[in-house]
Design goal:
With 205 residues, the protein is α/β, with parallel strands linked by helices. It has two domains: 4-43, no CATH class; 49-203, 3-Layer(aba) Sandwich (Alpha/beta knot). The protein is 26% helix and 24% strand. It has six helices and eleven strands. The protein has helices spanning 60-73, 96-102, 105-108, 117-126, 167-170, 190-203, and strands at residues 4-6, 23-27, 30-34, 39-43, 49-55, 77-81, 111-114, 130-134, 141-142, 153-157, 175-178. The strands form two sheets. Strands 7-6-5-10-8-11-9 form a seven-stranded parallel β-sheet, with helices on both faces. It is globular.
Length: 205
C-alpha cells in the first residue's frame, strides 16, 4: 500500500500531487489526493464536523449562495427549516434560481428539511452539537474570538434576511456570534455573513 503523509494546509488553495495521475476522493472529514507514487492525507478542517441551519431564508439566491459556501467549507449537512426553500420544487425539478448561484453545490452538499427550528436544535444538542447562532444581541461576541476544539461538533445557525433569529432560537444557542461593523450599515447580507463566520470557525485555532 502506498505510504500516506499528513499534510497541514494553512491556505484555501488546493493541494496537488506532482507525479502521476491524480485521483481525488472524499472519505468522511478527510480529503485524499492519490498519485502513482505519492498519497497525501489532508485533514480538511480543524473541526470534526460542522452543520448549518438556515431557518426562514426567503431568497432563493441566498439559499443557493449558502449551498456553494457550504460546499467550499466542507459543511457536512445543510438543514433548511421553516419557509427556507428546498433546492427542488414539488415536482422534483431543481430550482433555476438556486442552481444559478450554487453552481452544482445543491447536488454535492447533503440537505434536510425541518419544520421546526427549535425542535431541530434541541435534537442536535442532544447528539452533541454546540449551537452557534449568528445574530446581534446583548450576549453576542465577535465571531473571531471563538475557537472550537478540534473534535468539536458545531451547528451554525443564520436567520431571516430582515428579522434575524427569534428569541426561542437564541435561547438554545451556546454562543451568539456577531460580525463587528465599521461602517454606517448595521448588518450584512445573510449569505455573506454566513460565509464570513463559517470560514472563521473552520480555520480559527
Amino acid at each position: 500500500m502506498t505510504r500516506r503523509t499528513r499534510v497541514w494546509a494553512y491556505t484555501f488553495y488546493p493541494i496537488y500531487a506532482v507525479h502521476g495521475d491524480v485521483d481525488a476522493r472524499r472519505d468522511s472529514d478527510v480529503f485524499y489526493l492519490a498519485s502513482e507514487s505519492l498519497f497525501f492525507c489532508y485533514d480538511r478542517f480543524c473541526m470534526k464536523e460542522i452543520v448549518a441551519v438556515l431557518p426562514n431564508i426567503r431568497s432563493l439566491h441566498n439559499v443557493g449562495s449558502a449551498f456553494r459556501t457550504a460546499d467550499a467549507a466542507g459543511v457536512s449537512k445543510l438543514y433548511l427549516s421553516g419557509i427556507t426553500p428546498k433546492p427542488v420544487d414539488p415536482l422534483g425539478n431543481y430550482r433555476r434560481e438556486i442552481v444559478k448561484v450554487a453552481l452544482g453545490a445543491e447536488r454535492t452538499v447533503p440537505w434536510e428539511c425541518a419544520r421546526s427550528t427549535v425542535a431541530l436544535l434541541k435534537k442536535l444538542k442532544k447528539t452533541g452539537y454546540q449551537i452557534f447562532a449568528v445574530e446581534q444581541s446583548k450576549r453576542s461576541i465577535p465571531y473571531y474570538r471563538v475557537k472550537p476544539a478540534k473534535n468539536a461538533r458545531v451547528a451554525l445557525v443564520v436567520g431571516n434576511e430582515v428579522e434575524g433569529l427569534p428569541a426561542d432560537v437564541l435561547r438554545l444557542a451556546d454562543k451568539i456570534l456577531e460580525i463587528p461593523m465599521r461602517g454606517k450599515k448595521e448588518s450584512l447580507n445573510v449569505s455573506v455573513a454566513f460565509g464570513i463566520v463559517l470560514f472563521g470557525l473552520v480555520y480559527n485555532k
